[in-house]
Design goal:
about 180 residues, 8 helices
Length: about 180
Amino acid sequence: MNEIDDKTVKNATAGDKNAFRLIVLHYAQAVNRLAYRYTADASYAEDIAQETFIKAFQAIGRYQAQAKFSTWLLRITTNSAIDYLRKANRQMAQSLDEEGAQREITDHSMDTGDRLDLNRRLSDAMSDLSDVERLAITMKHHQGYSIDETAQVLNIKNNACKQTIFRAVQKLRKQLTTEVSA
């Protein structure tokens, strides 16, 4: 990812609103793209991106240049997306409990029952992963981040990142194959 210059970041940490506006313009696409990876919905991703920049603006004075600025910002994005998904999952569970509603799925290559079952199985399998495992899988396999970039965002060492991804894949594989054979 193309980093913004240090002077702009320093100015923003000192309270320069124009410098922060430049940061938003520079990173908006990357933040939105990451948020979209979590939600697969453009409007939700925009909400998460907006929340990310609000949080970043409020916390910019605490940013320390020990890590790349993009790493710090993408970590805020990741946390915002997780918060959003947790809230959405709670609301969806309540809705399903209260109304017996089912989510609409637009993929017409499978019948509705199969799609709902597949979505449920994948969702259940992903929810059984730890937050770090879920983030590592999402960043590495869905967003195309390198091990180095993923490890930096997760604030873990490269070998730990590799082990986390391997462990998550093994858990998913075991759970999904167990459910298929059951």
